[in-house]
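Q: What residues go here?
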């Protein structure tokens, strides 16, 4: 799969806005890992993990770490439950902000 590193300042700003703006800090109730969360809709949840939060996650640690074996598209059910609770508690709002 081809990839590229954006260099254009406008592209870099767009990338920063997409990946960071509007994120709410949410802590996992099971392991205290902290992630950035944005809910654009009831169906869409964006979660930005850091290297530190991945290292703290016991669910990720228990998965097969052999290169190419870990399903990187599966999230942690404990974190998803924490995000759902944050939405219910009103800490994370649902709806796109500024187009994101």
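A:
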């Amino acid at each position: 799969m081809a990839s590229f590193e954006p260099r254009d300042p406008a592209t870099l700003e767009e990338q920063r806005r997409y990946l960071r703006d509007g994120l709410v800090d949410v802590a996992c109730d099971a392991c205290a890992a902290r992630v950035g969360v944005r809910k654009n809709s009831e169906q869409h949840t964006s979660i930005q993990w850091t290297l530190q939060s991945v290292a703290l996650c016991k669910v990720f640690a228990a998965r097969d770490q052999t290169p190419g074996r870990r399903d990187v598209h599966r999230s942690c059910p404990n974190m998803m439950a924490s995000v759902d609770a944050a939405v219910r508690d009103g800490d994370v709002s649902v709806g796109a902000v500024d187009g994101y």
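A: Context that may help when evaluating the design: The chain is about 35% helix and 15% strand. The chain has a mean pLDDT of 83.
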